[in-house]
Every structure is written in structure tokens, then in C-alpha cells.
Specification:
Number of strands: 40
Strand content: 25-35%
Strand order of the largest sheet: 14-15-13-16-17-18
Number of helices: 19
Structural class: alpha+beta
């Protein structure tokens, strides 16, 4: 121990300070069953609180496996006492002899901060302790309420059991008085019958034998554990002889035993034969095996097994046809209801009207005739407008619908159709929706091809015809010739003893227009046209186009019912909700009744001209219809593209056109009818060698997508009454894609015809020049054989094609390499002269052979 002297000469002894370990260890012996034991090392740690060490409570030894005891509440931990600064020594205190230095400001600040942090922690711990105390009080109150409820249930159960025992005793007494035997003896006498009281294992006493040789004794049924008791874990030990014979412990059935009993019951129920349920199975044209099994409530394995018996290997997601599905369903005992995919369209069109709701409607009149016979001029004169001036070239290339009012007979709906040959489909559409056909024939021109076609369309539609003989104001007009020519086509006018009304008119001079309207009104009265305005609307799309500002616009003629703004409509493969209705005069309207033409806005896409329009009840129904129609359209287009379907004759014709050259085109038009007419005209230009292939067609302006498609396929872009967008023009200039614009269909067809003619293989024509006969064969070194010939007719030219004929059989076809007259080269040798000839690459020439000289010319062909 070192010594230290102070300045005043005193000696101080200094001890070396060391820290005692804060952990104390001990050994605890832990006992187990079967005499086993184990030593466990227990550590006791001390915690420093406020400068003093507090010894933590020792951990109790591990308990022997017994019934679980309720957990004791956690002991309260002593709150830490913050360390305070030592008080200054009083004068009475004896000095220790050690000089303590004073604290610096920084140390005082740190201790003040530590003291503040300790006080904050103390406040937080108090708050946490108060919260835990509240939660513990709430939990204890809840557990107390549960224990009280369990005790009340137990008392009720005991009362009920006492009542049952009393009633049983009374029943035994009554049975003993009546039969002289006890109920228990009756049960012993009939060992095959268990008392009703012993049917349930949980009710009544039961006899248990505990081990071999053990005495059988009756033990009471186990009490149902209360809710509070279920929360504690059941203490189960090993089954020994001592445990089995002890009277304190009653062994209950284990959870595994209950599970085994439940599994046996489920197995017994599943093995019971079930009654077969016969179902009506709806089978479409194609169905998957999984869907069929679901509809029949059968297992998919059974269906696959039946298919394997038929020699067909299938999986659960494979598709089978309706015939196979019907055989399987009938073999499994179900009834079958076959439905087609087209059944989704049932009830959309042609539903019967209530006769009580029918009201007279305006007649629909279609004006038809040859091109330039004055159909549009007649309508302009009736409507007092000028539509002709707005059409390119003065010819109608669109179909239009208008409504006018006649003073005596009310409103009349007119449909104007194009007259020239390319618009056959438009005229057919106009004839389908019409009630009366006005056949316009020019008095100076007579009956023309499109006039005959219009007559045939009217006859096919079974519509009455009114003949309007136009241009009677001209000097060359011959109305009688028109009437006579119409007789050749079974049109007999009234003036010639027939039943067809004819009116001589002049559209430009407005002569007899009122008489024509009167005849139309009389014919409509005879037809007695009626429709129901209260039902859902039906109609026909007369024309459709894509307007850049308004979107898809369809000109619709309403035939039945009334079309309202907001209705959900379906037309072909497109559907939509009516956003706006525009009349033929350009005014917005809210409704459109029967025989009223309107423009409909709101379609999701541009419908095809001629599609039937109908109002449906919901968007889901509209999507179902359009999805089916899109599928049908896709299948038809794929069938045309692949050519795998059709008859044997179609396959042979496809084999003939395998080497045909295609002229690819992209066609964009202002309306659907014009695009349809252009495609029809171009298809007629095709031959076995070259044909127009329309890669894409549509309504609206030329877009960047069209230019990109043209660049990838090499197709020419044709715009009919439309223009390219600004971005599409810029892209076309970058990619060197040519865009052609047209507004007259004749010019378009003529240019395409010239371009397609350039794809034709030039024709080879042979021109016979003359014949020569070989008189002698000469062998010349370094040259070969030379034929000495005499020209018998025509002439022989150097470099021309020659044929060597022996015994009237052509044995060589080649070219003449040398032609000499005496020893000089000659360009040609005429008849009667002799010359020498040699062939290119051929030496087998004999005297007496005939040489035929000819020239081959190539001639460019045209369609």
C-alpha cells in the first residue's frame, strides 16, 4: 500500500480502488419426471440506481410440470432517484485531508442537462406506468365479468342437471311401480339397445376400465370447460398406471380423437350414394371442357375419360365443338339446349308493333336514274336549294337524304343516289329503305345502262315506280321514245295502258313539279304507311363519314320508333350514345321520329353505310353485339386473306392467280359510300396477271399512320375529297411517299388503270422474215461448220433469230452469228440469192435442212 505525504508533513495512506463484479452466479437443481434432474446456472445482476446498487430478485427455479397457475402481477420497479450535487461541507464536518477542485461551468451545464433529461425520463415513465395501470384495471374488470358470467352459467348447468336427476328418479319410481323393475335393469336385460341417455358421450355417466385387471367404475361426465378455463392450456402427462388409477385426475378425450371422429363421419357421408341431379345444359357452338364440366356440375376428369374412350386426348382447357359436347352431356344423363353464337342478335330488330300505337308516317322516296339525267337538279328544284354546284364535276358522288313538305299530303322524305356505274351499292341501299322509287329519265337521252340497273333495284325492293321524264324543255326531247324504250324492261306507263305513273317535268324550268309531288302523295295514300313512334328506334345508316371536329357522323333514316338524344345505339360493328341529332337543314333536334333523316353524333367509330341501327337497353348489351360482329368481320377477312375456305373451284382459281402481281393501295375518302364505290371499281380492273390490292381503306383525312403503312408496304396513297394532315404531309416528304388527291372517281380509276398496266409483262411478237434451204455444209478450220444456203422467200438478216427445221420438226432455236455473201459479210440477203450462215453454239447442220429466220418484238400491254 503506497504512502503519500502532504505539504504539512503528514503521511496519507492511499488504497487502490477496484470494481466488484455486478453479477453473482449460483446453481439451481431442476427435477423432472422418472427421477431425472438437471443443474441450472442462475445469474443475479445488480442495477445501479442513484449511486446505490439494487439487487435484482433471484429467478425462481424452473417449476415441475403441473397444472398452470395464474400469472402473478409484475412487481413494481422502484423509480430511479436522480443524483443530486453533493451538499457543501459544514464547518463542523471534519476535513478529509483531500482537496476537491471546484466544477467548471461546462461540467455544471452537463450535469444540469443530465438532471433535466432524468426528470423528463421520470415523467415519461410515470405516464407509461399510469397507462399500464389503467389497461390492467380494464383487463381485470373484463376478466372478472367473464368469470362472473361463467359462474352463472355453471350454476344454471348445475340446476338443470339436478332437475334432470330428479325427473329421472321420478321416472324410475314410476317404472318400478308400473313394471316392478328398474330402468337400469331394463337396459341390462336388453344389451343390444343403449339407453337414449348414453347415446351422447358427453351426457350421463359412463363405465371406464383403467388398465388390465383394474376395477371398472362409474365416473361422472366431464364438465364443459368455461370460457375462462379454455384460455388456460390443459396439463397432460404421460398415461401411467398410477395416473390411470388415481381418483383425482379424470382423463378426457384428446383433440386428435375428436379430429379422427370427425374425419370418419365425413368419410361415411362421402361414401353414401348421392342422388343424380339432371340438369339442362346450354351448349354454344364451341365450349371448353372446364366450362362444360361447370355447367353440368360434373368433374372435368369424367369428361376427359369419356373423350379418351372416343380416342381423343384432351386437357381441361381444350375447346370442343357443340356436337361432341352434346354427346358427352347426354351420356352423363343431362338434357342439352343448343344455342348459336348468332343468338345474341335475337330481339334487336323486327319486333312486332302494337297495332294500337301505329300512326301514319311520311313516305320515303328514292330518286334514281342514269348519270346527268337531272336527279339532283330535280331535288334542288323541289327543295329550292343548289346542291349540284357543290359536287365535283357536277355529278353526285354522295348519297343524301332530305325532307320536304307538300301542301296537300304533308311531309315527304327524299333520298338522292349517285347515277354513274361505280355507285351500284349506293343505289342498292337507297332502294332497300325506300317506299316509292322516282325513276328520272332524260327525254333527250332515253333509257341508259344505269336506268336499267335502277329499274332492277326497284323491282328487287318491290317498290312502286313513278317515271319522271325530265328535260322536256329541250328541243331534242322525245318523251314517247322514252315510254317505248321502257316497255322493253317491263315498265308500262298509264298512257300506254299500264299501271306505272309517268310525269313530264323540267327541273331547270320547274315545270309540273307540283304534279309530281301530288302523284307521290297519292301513291303514299294507297300504300297506307304507318309506324309506331313510341317504341325503341330502328333505322338504316344511309351514309357515314369522319368529321375532324365532330368525330364519326352517320346519316341515319329512322324507320320505326323515335330516336332520342342519350339513347344507346348499335350500328354494325360500332356502338355509342347519341350526343346530338342534326336535321337535314342543319338545325339541332332532340328527337327524330319515323321517316325522318338525321345526322347522328356519338359513335365510337365510323359505321359502314347500309348497316342497320337499333337502340339497345344498356352498354353491356351494345358491347356484346359489337364484339360478336367484330368477330364475324375478322373471320371473314381472314378467310379472304388466307383463302383456305371455299369450294374446289375457288381453290383452283386461287392456284391460277398465285403468280399474279399486286398493285398495293391505301384509299381514304370523305364518306363510306365513296370508299366502297372506289374499291368496287378497282376490283373490276384486275386480271389474272395484275390486280389492285387495297391494303387499308377508311373515312377521314390521311394520317401519319397511313404514311407509315405506305412506307412499309410500298403502297400508293389515294385521297378522295380529303387532304392529308399537316404532320402526315411532313412525314410523307421525309419518306418520299407520294399522295394523290382526286375529287372525280373517273379520273382516279383511269390513273390507277394506267399504273396497273405498267405491271403487265410486255407481249412478245414474232415477225417472220424469210426461209432458206441448206445446199452444202463446209468445214472451215478455227470457225467450224458453215451452211451454204439459198434464200427461198423473204430475206435473212444478220443477228436475227433462226429455227433449224428437219423433216418438218424444229430441232434448234437460236441466233444467226454470221451471214456472208461470197467472202464478204452481209447485213441481209434477199430471196433468190445464195449465202453462207453459221449458228451460235450449234454445228449439227445437214444438207436439205430448212432455216426459218424471224424477228422478236416486245409490245407494252394495257388493261
Amino acid at each position: 500500500m503506497p504512502d503519500t505525504k502532504t505539504p504539512d508533513g503528514k503521511t496519507l495512506s492511499v488504497k487502490t480502488l477496484s470494481l466488484k463484479p455486478r453479477t453473482e452466479t449460483g446453481v439451481v437443481r431442476q427435477s423432472f419426471s422418472h427421477g431425472r434432474s438437471k443443474q441450472v446456472v442462475v445469474e443475479v445482476k445488480k442495477r445501479r440506481i442513484g449511486g446505490a446498487e439494487v439487487k435484482a430478485p433471484e429467478a425462481p427455479p424452473a417449476p415441475v410440470a403441473r397444472a398452470p397457475q395464474p400469472a402473478a402481477p409484475a412487481p413494481k420497479v422502484a423509480k430511479p432517484v436522480p443524483a443530486t450535487a453533493p451538499a457543501p461541507a459544514t464547518p463542523a464536518t471534519k476535513p478529509s485531508g483531500v482537496v476537491l477542485r471546484t466544477l467548471t461551468d461546462e461540467e455544471r451545464n452537463r450535469r444540469a442537462h443530465a438532471l433535466g433529461d432524468a426528470m423528463l425520463r421520470d415523467a415519461e415513465e410515470r405516464k407509461i406506468a399510469e397507462e399500464e395501470a389503467r389497461n390492467r384495471a380494464t383487463r381485470e374488470a373484463f376478466e372478472k365479468a367473464e368469470r362472473d358470467a361463467a359462474d352463472s352459467r355453471k350454476r344454471e348447468e348445475d340446476d338443470r342437471r339436478k332437475l334432470e336427476e330428479q325427473s329421472k328418479k321420478k321416472a324410475d319410481e314410476v317404472a318400478k311401480k308400473r313394471f316392478g323393475v328398474d330402468s337400469a335393469e331394463v337396459a341390462v336385460a336388453r344389451p343390444g339397445v343403449r339407453p337414449a341417455l348414453e347415446a351422447e358421450e358427453e351426457e350421463g355417466p359412463r363405465t371406464v376400465r383403467r388398465g388390465p385387471g383394474g376395477a371398472a367404475r362409474v365416473i361422472p361426465p366431464p364438465k364443459r370447460p368455461t370460457r375462462a378455463a379454455q384460455t388456460t392450456e390443459k396439463a397432460r402427462g404421460r398415461l401411467t398406471l398410477v395416473n390411470a388409477l388415481s381418483a383425482d385426475d379424470v382423463r378426457e378425450r384428446s383433440d386428435a380423437s375428436f379430429r379422427r371422429r370427425n374425419r370418419r363421419q365425413v368419410r361415411d357421408l362421402s361414401n353414401e350414394p348421392k342422388e343424380k341431379i339432371i340438369r339442362e345444359v346450354t351448349i354454344p357452338e364451341f365450349i371448353t371442357i372446364a366450362d362444360l364440366a361447370n355447367r353440368m356440375a360434373e368433374r372435368g376428369v369424367e369428361i376427359i375419360r369419356l373423350l379418351m374412350k372416343q380416342g381423343q386426348m384432351a386437357q381441361i382447357n381444350d375447346v370442343i365443338d357443340a356436337d361432341t359436347a352434346q354427346l358427352i352431356a347426354e351420356e352423363l344423363g343431362h338434357t342439352v339446349k343448343r344455342v348459336a353464337e348468332a343468338d345474341v342478335e335475337e330481339g334487336v330488330f323486327d319486333s312486332a308493333d302494337d297495332p294500337a300505337t301505329l300512326e301514319p308516317r311520311a313516305p320515303v322516296v328514292t330518286v334514281m336514274g342514269h348519270v346527268d339525267h337531272g336527279k339532283t337538279s330535280l331535288l334542288d328544284a323541289i327543295r329550292q336549294t343548289n346542291v349540284v354546284s357543290g359536287e365535283a364535276g357536277g355529278i353526285t358522288q354522295h348519297i343524301g337524304a332530305y325532307q320536304v313538305s307538300e301542301p296537300k299530303h304533308g311531309k315527304i322524305t327524299f333520298i338522292d343516289t349517285p347515277g354513274h356505274a361505280a355507285f351500284t351499292a349506293m343505289r342498292a341501299r337507297g332502294a332497300k329503305v325506300t317506299d316509292i322509287v322516282v325513276l328520272v329519265v332524260a327525254a333527250d337521252d332515253g333509257v341508259m345502262p344505269q336506268t336499267v340497273e335502277a329499274i332492277n333495284h326497284a323491282k328487287a325492293a318491290k317498290a312502286p315506280i313513278i317515271v319522271a321524264i325530265n328535260k322536256i324543255d329541250k328541243n331534242e326531247a322525245k318523251p314517247e321514245r322514252v315510254r317505248t324504250e321502257l316497255l322493253q324492261h317491263e315498265i308500262q306507263v298509264e298512257s300506254l295502258g299500264g299501271d306505272v305513273v309517268d310525269v313530264e317535268i323540267s327541273a331547270t324550268k320547274k315545270l309540273n313539279l307540283d304534279k309530281l309531288l301530288e302523284m307521290i302523295g297519292l301513291q303514299a295514300e294507297i300504300l297506307d304507311l304507318k309506324a309506331s313512334p313510341t317504341r325503341a328506334a330502328e333505322g338504316t345508316v344511309i351514309e357515314a363519314k369522319l368529321d375532324r371536329g365532330r368525330g364519326p357522323v352517320a346519316t341515319v333514316l329512322v324507320q320505326r320508333g323515335t330516336l332520342h338524344v342519350g339513347d344507346i345505339i348499335v350500328a354494325g360493328a360500332e356502338w355509342g350514345r347519341v350526343r346530338a341529332l342534326v336535321s337535314d337543314a342543319g338545325d339541332p333536334v332532340s328527337t327524330a321520329g319515323p321517316s325522318v333523316p338525321v345526322e347522328v353524333l356519338g359513335f365510337t367509330g365510323t359505321p359502314d353505310a347500309g348497316d342497320r341501327l337499333a337502340v339497345v337497353e344498356s352498354e353491356a348489351r351494345a358491347r356484346e353485339l359489337t364484339d360478336y360482329r367484330v368477330r364475324q368481320k375478322r373471320e371473314k377477312s381472314s378467310a379472304r386473306a388466307t383463302g383456305m375456305r371455299g369450294s374446289l373451284e375457288q381453290m383452283m382459281s386461287q392456284l391460277k392467280t398465285t403468280g399474279r402481281k399486286d398493285f398495293p393501295l391505301i384509299i381514304k375518302g370523305d364518306v363510306q359510300g365513296s370508299v366502297e364505290a372506289i374499291i368496287g371499281s378497282l376490283e373490276k380492273l384486275g386480271t389474272d396477271e395484275v390486280a389492285a390490292q387495297v391494303i387499308h381503306s377508311g373515312v377521314g383525312g390521311i394520317t401519319e399512320t397511313d404514311v407509315g403503312l405506305s412506307e412499309s408496304t410500298g403502297a400508293a396513297i389515294i385521297g378522295f375529297n380529303v387532304r392529308a394532315h399537316k404532320e402526315a404531309r411532313a412525314q410523307a416528304e421525309r419518306d418520299n411517299v407520294e399522295i394523290r388527291y382526286y375529287n372525280i372517281i373517273y379520273d382516279l380509276v383511269e390513273d390507277v388503270k394506267k399504273a396497273m398496266s405498267g405491271l403487265l409483262t410486255p407481249e412478245r411478237r414474232e415477225t417472220l422474215l424469210g426461209n432458206a434451204q441448206i445446199l452444202e455444209i463446209f468445214n472451215i478450220s478455227k470457225i467450224g461448220k458453215i451452211a451454204g444456203c439459198r434464200v427461198t422467200d423473204g430475206k435473212v438478216e444478220r443477228g436475227a433469230n433462226v429455227r433449224l427445221i428437219r423433216d418438218n420438226v424444229v430441232i434448234h432455236d437460236g441466233k444467226l452469228s454470221q451471214l456472208k455473201r461470197f467472202k464478204d459479210d452481209a447485213r441481209e440477203v434477199v430471196a433468190g440469192q445464195e449465202c453462207g450462215m453459221s449458228f451460235e453454239g450449234y454445228q449439227d447442220m445437214r444438207a436439205g435442212d430448212v432455216i426459218e429466220c424471224y424477228r422478236v418484238e416486245t409490245v407494252q400491254r394495257s388493261l
